[in-house]
Structure formats: C-alpha cells, structure tokens
Amino acid sequence: MAQSIAIASGKGGVGKTSVAVNLALVLRQLGSRVTLLDADFGTANAHILMGENLRPTVEKSLLADEPVQKALTQTAHGVTLLSGGSTALDLLDLKNHERLQLIRKVEALGDETDYLIVDTPAGASDATLAFVAAADRILLVVVGEPTSFMDAYTILKAAHLEHGVRSVSVVINMARDAAEARRHFDQFQAIALRFLDVELTLVGHLPMSLPLRRSVVARRPLMSNPGAAQSIEGQAFMTIAQKLLQAPKNVPSGIRFFLDNEKKEG
Ligand SMILES: Nc1ncnc2c1ncn2[C@@H]1O[C@H](COP(=O)(O)OP(=O)(O)OP(=O)(O)O)[C@@H](O)[C@H]1O
Ligand SMILES: [Mg+2]
What residue ranges define each of the domains in the chain, with the CATH number in brackets? Predict the structure, then answer.
C-alpha cells in the first residue's frame, strides 16, 4: 500500500528538491513504484532537475475536476511526476479546501504507486503545513546554520502544535562528515526538545557536493548517472532512504494522503 513522504525545510535553498528527486530515483532503483508530487506550486522545479518538459495541460488537469492520472508525467527515470510546472500560478493561490481536494485527488494513485514523495515549498505557510501534516513520513532537510535551524524549528513547531505531528526524520545537508552532521543534529534536537514533545530521527547526511550541484545544471539527477550507486552521494542517498523507511511514522490527525491505508491496515 502506498506511503507518503513529505520533504520540508523551512528555509529555502537548502536542498529539498535535490533530496526529493534523488530519493525518488533511489526508491525506484530499489524496485518500488514512485510518484513525485511537486507541491512547490508557482515555483515548481523538480521537472527541471529531472530534465523533463511538462505538457502545458498538466496544471489545468491538476486543478480541474479530472482524474489525477491526466496530470501525470512519466519521466525518463522511471519516476512518475505530478507537477503543474513553474508557471502554474493558479496553483499558487489555492484556497484551503482546494488544497485538501488536491490531496484527496492524489489518493486515487494509492494502487498504482508504492511511494508518494512530496516536495514542499520553503516557509511554514498553510500550504506547506497541509502537505507535511498529510504525510506518513516527514523528512526535514537542515544545514548547519542558525538560520536553517530556526526555520526548521518554526515549521516543526507549527506542524506539531497545529497538526499534532510528532515523528520527524532529519537529514543534514552539506555536512563535512558524519560527526559534524551528528553535532548539528544534536544542536537542533536540543532546541526542539526543549519546547516540543516531538521525536526526531537522524537518517543521514549529504556532503557538500560539486557533482550534485552540476547535476542540477545538467538537468540530470545525480542518481541517474552510471555508477552513481557507488559514489559517496549515492551511498548517502541509499542510507537516507533505508533509515527513513525504518524511522517512526507520523500519525497525522487530520486529512492525509492515502486515507485508505488506515482501513487496509486496520
Ligand atoms: N549537498 C549539496 N552540495 C552542493 N550543492 C547542493 C547540495 N544540496 C543542494 N545543493 C545546491 O543548492 C541549491 C538549492 O538546492 P535545491 O533546489 O535542492 O534546494 P531547495 O531547498 O529545494 O530550494 P527551494 O527552497 O528554492 O525550493 C542548488 O543549486 C543545488 O544544486
Ligand atoms: Mg525546491
């Protein structure tokens, strides 16, 4: 049955989309069916990182009363993309009920995908929180800077207090090594646990990586390169995927992707 994973950060430009895209490819390479929802409406760019051109009709299909399948893009990497594209301005101003309708609409993919990865917008807007709170697993991307810690804390606090989110995984991006990542995680966790009743799990780190940056410029995800699985970054993404799937699940109280999971599991 389908599981949803939301990628969030609070602060912009810390690597959410890079993580979302490469995590999607790793899960696909492990044999799962993967859908990537680019919920960064208005400034969507997962398709750019994946080197895909979207049909001009996908934005309309996402919004209209049409089956979600009409908005899907089958990418060259085996991952299915659900994105309105970078000009989807109508998606930017979704009202709360429209956003919830969209989450409900995605539920129709429950039988055709194993993992739904949701790339969320920076900030702690209602839109980001809705997508975060609707996910089975939440991966917070943090870099070792006070601004990133504060913005990640802001989104964690809002998700916890407004939506009852408790279990969140963390990846430290652009870390020198595992020891530095652990130090940053401990610092962040100390702030969070002082004020919030949450459970954080460090699922891995990524190095500062020229190949990762170049892959964006080349519009070819790093994990699609031959031999990527053996690279430092590839092994890091593999560890992140495995630990994330073992980490405790978020049990959201409100609307969620794949509501049917509860019935099936129950
Ligand atoms: N580990 C890394 N090493 C080097 N560069 C990185 C790394 N992670 C991300 N980057 C670079 O940082 C920039 C921002 O990355 P990305 O778009 O994934 O961030 P984002 O959090 O999705 O941004 P936004 O908030 O704008 O959506 C890109 O140029 C990307 O190549
Ligand atoms: Mg992004």
Answer: 3-256 (3.40.50.300)
